[in-house]
Automatic annotation (TrEMBL):
<comment type="function">
    <text>Exhibits a very high intrinsic GTPase hydrolysis rate. Involved in the addition of a carboxymethylaminomethyl (cmnm) group at the wobble position (U34) of certain tRNAs, forming tRNA-cmnm(5)s(2)U34.</text>
</comment>
<dbReference type="InterPro" id="IPR027417">
    <property type="entry name" value="P-loop_NTPase"/>
</dbReference>
<keyword id="KW-0819">tRNA processing</keyword>
<keyword id="KW-0963">Cytoplasm</keyword>
<dbReference type="InterPro" id="IPR005225">
    <property type="entry name" value="Small_GTP-bd"/>
</dbReference>
<feature type="binding site">
    <location>
        <begin position="253"/>
        <end position="259"/>
    </location>
    <ligand>
        <name>GTP</name>
    </ligand>
</feature>
<comment type="subunit">
    <text>Homodimer. Heterotetramer of two MnmE and two MnmG subunits.</text>
</comment>
<feature type="binding site">
    <location>
        <position position="238"/>
    </location>
    <ligand>
        <name>Mg(2+)</name>
    </ligand>
</feature>
<keyword id="KW-0547">Nucleotide-binding</keyword>
<feature type="binding site">
    <location>
        <position position="259"/>
    </location>
    <ligand>
        <name>Mg(2+)</name>
    </ligand>
</feature>
<keyword id="KW-0342">GTP-binding</keyword>
<keyword id="KW-0630">Potassium</keyword>
<dbReference type="InterPro" id="IPR018948">
    <property type="entry name" value="GTP-bd_TrmE_N"/>
</dbReference>
<dbReference type="GO" id="GO:0016787">
    <property type="term" value="F:hydrolase activity"/>
</dbReference>
<feature type="domain" description="TrmE-type G">
    <location>
        <begin position="224"/>
        <end position="371"/>
    </location>
</feature>
<comment type="similarity">
    <text>Belongs to the TRAFAC class TrmE-Era-EngA-EngB-Septin-like GTPase superfamily. TrmE GTPase family.</text>
</comment>
<dbReference type="InterPro" id="IPR006073">
    <property type="entry name" value="GTP-bd"/>
</dbReference>
Length: 445
């Protein structure tokens, strides 16, 4: 359970948990100490706990009673609720006037509008979820694809938390043995005590390094991939982008240098969100604006998860001068040589945007690459840079613990390693992180 008492609040909060705009139903959430009192004022009679009941909602004041709506009401007495506090849901008719009237009544009865992520923050503070699970909930709300949903749900269900808790338990056991060696130096403790201690440190160190060496697959899936389209002017980059996204996202003309700035379009390839980036044509130029576009194109190519290098098939074949993951020869409908180019294990594809030849194969290859860059096996992957930095810090302390011989110094490094893990789950030292983490949530979650 969490013990962040300094973050507890006596206020009662409310927020719309469904998207704004016209719809059939809008869900208003309430949480806090005044929830029961508010429901008793809102409803004709109190609903049974955790049973959906139809009730008329009222604003009762000195000027008389005003009927607000007829709604489905669910009452969740704490601690068996999402936040661990007394909570409720009001399933309202979704007209803006109804929502505004109910919100005004809740404020009249003593509640206040919730801040971004405040419901989940309270769930964390009250020990309903740890920090990793809370971040998983945020990712689940934002998930665009089934692959993202599965990864976020695994984290929400405690997949990462279980791994880190197991490491923390092993560290705690190792630290206990280390303290025994410090406190009883004159006792004839078995030699295998220190040997087992060092072996366990080495195993933990290796397991955490393996966890870090995942090629960033979890982080890539969470944020989505970037595929850059590079090549000379008029190689067909903008035409290919338009075809892949099935709309006219980029201007296409016969004039070289039409695209001067990066054009980004989000698509789904292989159940993975991918941002396709059309870039300025690479060539020597005296035009200051075009030169800046080329500089940006080169930078995008260096940072992208995958680079598609395009060249007109009528141009002499030569090795690409920039980073290249797929070599794509375009305009093969123009009766040109279909000789494939092989260099540095780069896969070569022949396509025609005009006739569609090779496009299905290209889409298949790109989907396979997207899946390859994000699919993981084994334990749940790291999904945020915060996780990666925390494990890296833990690994550094374990490396020091392996290196030093003085028991006191080794014990201190083990304690620091435990603190690094504790900050990941939120069990220690995360007060300064909470506002940053939960401010990224949507209102009502």
């Amino acid at each position: 359970m969490n013990t962040l008492s300094s973050f507890s609040s006596d206020s009662t909060i409310f927020a719309l948990a469904t998207a704004s705009g016209r719809g059939a139903v809008a869900i208003m959430r309430i949480s806090g100490a005044l929830t029961l009192q508010i429901l008793e004022k809102l409803c004709d009679t109190m609903p049974m706990p955790r049973q959906a009941s139809v009730r008329r909602l009222w604003k009762r004041g000195s000027e008389g009673d005003e009927l607000l709506d007829q709604a489905l009401v669910i009452w969740f007495p704490g601690p068996k609720s999402y936040t661990g506090e007394d909570s409720a849901e009001l399933h309202l008719h979704a007209g803006p006037a109804v929502i505004d009237a109910v919100a005004e009544a809740l404020a009249f009865y003593g509640a206040r509008p919730a801040q971004a992520g405040e419901f989940t923050k309270r769930a964390f503070i009250n020990g309903q979820v740890d920090l990793l699970q809370a971040e998983g909930i945020s990712d689940l709300v934002e998930a665009e694809t089934q692959a993202q949903r599965k990864q976020a749900l695994e984290q929400t269900e405690g997949g990462l938390s279980i791994v880190y808790r197991e490491w923390a338990n092993k560290l705690r056991e190792v630290l206990a043995y280390q303290e025994a060696l410090i406190d009883f130096p004159d006792e004839d403790l078995p030699e295998e005590v220190e040997r087992n201690l060092k072996n366990t440190i080495a195993v933990l160190h290796q397991e955490m390094n393996d966890h870090l060496n995942d090629a960033g697959r979890g982080e890539r899936l969470r944020r989505g991939l970037v595929f850059a389209i590079l090549g000379a002017p008029n190689a067909g980059k903008s035409s290919l982008l338009n075809l892949l996204v099935d709309r006219d996202a980029a201007i296409v003309t016969e004039q070289a240098g039409t695209t001067r700035d990066a054009i980004e379009v989000r698509v789904v390839l292989g159940d993975v969100p991918v941002t396709l980036v059309d870039t300025a044509g690479l060539r020597e130029t005296q035009d200051v604006i075009e030169a800046e576009g080329i500089r940006r194109a080169q930078k995008i190519g260096q940072e992208a998860d995958c680079v598609l290098c395009l060249t007109d098939a009528s141009v002499d074949i030569k090795e690409p001068e920039v980073r290249c993951d797929f070599w794509i020869r375009t305009k093969i409908d123009l009766n040109v040589s279909r000789e494939t180019f092989v260099a540095k294990d780069i896969k070569t594809l022949l396509i025609s945007v005009k006739t569609g030849e090779g496009i299905a194969d290209l889409k298949r290859v790109l989907a396979e690459r997207a899946r390859y860059l994000t699919t993981h096996q084994g334990p749940p992957p790291l999904t945020r840079i915060r996780h990666r930095l925390g494990i890296m810090e833990c690994v550094q302390h374990l490396e020091e613990a392996k290196r030093v011989e003085w028991p006191e110094l080794r014990g201190e490094e083990l304690r620091l390693a435990m603190q690094s893990l504790g900050r990941l789950t939120g069990s220690v030292g995360v007060e300064d992180l909470l506002d940053t983490i939960f401010s990224q949530f949507c209102i009502g979650k």
